[in-house]
Amino acid sequence: MKTNITLIGLLFLFLGSCASPKYLPSAAKIDVNQYGSYIKIKRKTDSKINGEFIAIDSNRIVVLQEETKKCVSVPISDLKHFKLIYAKPKHYGLSIPTTIALPFIHGLYSIVTIPIHLLVTISVTASGERAFRYSDKNMNYDMLKMFARYPQGIPHSIALDSIN
User: Fold this and answer.
1) Does 22 fall in a domain?
2) Can you tell me the distance from the alpha carbon of 145 to that of 164, in angstroms, rounded to the nearest whole number?
3) Is the distance from CB of 114 to CB of 100 less than 8 angstroms?
4) What's the domain range around 33?
5) Phi, psi of 135 (to 5 degrees)
6) Which helix (H) or strand (E) holds 82?
7) pLDDT tens digits for 75-114?
């Protein structure tokens, strides 16, 4: 009984992590998306900013905050870490229950094959959730501008207050 509750809890945990911002494109539509990527910024002051990545220049990053729907300018010198999500991740969470049921056709060998199937399926599910992501560990600021709504900078004719 405890095993069933644990498995159901794991299933809900994987399904609950399937949310991503609605404006992020699917993998097939990355090149025609008019919005910037989703960015999570951790500042040196331990405050966090999440939202759409609008632009970057030599000394600041502009983010349209998710909560307030207002643009915030963050000095690059105040940046500690960033994580960028540029497309909706692949969700393989529903394959876990199938993977648990499938090895039962192996009979007595299922004692060995169920853990193997679980390890493989959970690792594929986790890597699918991490797909389409970058961080400051594998990207510099010059490359980061490719994922902004305005990769060449905010045009002079557009005010930050008018971006939504």
Assistant:
1) yes
2) 19
3) yes
4) 2-89+132-162
5) -145, 180
6) strand 79-85
7) 999 999 999 988 877 777 777 777 777 777 777 887 888 8
For residue 79, report the phi and psi dihedrals to the nearest 5 degrees.
-80, 130
Alpha carbons within 13 angstroms on the beta-carbon side of residue 34 total 2
Which residues neighbour 152 within 8 Å (Cβ) at sequence distance 6 or greater?
145
Of 10-19, 28-37, 144-153, give the range with the top mean pLDDT.
Answer: 144-153
13 domain-assigned:
yes
Strands 71-75 and 60-65 turn out to be antiparallel
The tens digit of pLDDT for each residue in 14-25 reads 555 556 676 677
Handedness of CA 41, 47, 51, 53 (dihedral sign): negative
Q: What is the CATH number of the domain that holds 27?
A: 2.30.30.10
Q: What tokens appear for 127 in the block?
A: 């890597």
